Amino acid sequence: MKHVRRLVVILLAAVLGVTAMAPQAVAARGIFLYYEPDGGLGIVDPDDDWCYQLGYTVRELNNDTNRTAFLFADDSCLGGPFTSIPPHSTFPAPDSTLSVVFHRGSNSCCMTIRNLPDSARKAKTTRHCTH
Q: Which of 22, 32, 63, 112 could bond to 85 as cystine, CB 3.0-4.6 Å?
């Protein structure tokens, strides 16, 4: 009986340890709206660190998610972001091609960006750091 009790305690500790180390969900909650001359489009519950291409006719951006949205002046999220949109705020879009990455926190110093190249079906991961 003593050995069974010890085994139960060890198994319980192992289960609690694995549960405590489980990663948090990697998706924002909410919707990111971007408006073009023809109307609005949205990204619902966007994944963290995924490069979303918005195009070049975007006029206004509305970040109604719980993540900071980092805007890039190209369609592949290369280089550093030129601005960020805090959660639950609106931003007038510049006249350029845009892409956006959602990232936990407001520090864009280093982000791992996942995107899907046109020529492949496998996601490509790149690390971007700005100083």
A: 63
Taking Cα atoms as reference points, which of 112, 113, 98 lies closest to residue 53? 98
Classify domain 30-129 at the CATH topology level.
Answer: Gamma-B Crystallin; domain 1 (2.60.20)
Structural domain boundaries in the chain: 30-129
Query: What are φ and ψ of residue 104, in 5° steps?
Result: -65, 130
For position 121, what pLDDT does the model report?
46
Residues of the chain below pLDDT 50: 4, 7-9, 18-23, 25, 118-121, 130-131
- Walk across the sheet containing 68-72 and list its strands: 52-55, 98-103, 68-72, 83-85
Helix (H, G, I), strand (E, B) or coil at 48: strand
Per-position DSSP letters for 57-110, written without gaps between them: ---EEEEEESSEEEEESSSS--S--SEEE-TTEEEEPPSS-EEEEEESSS--SE
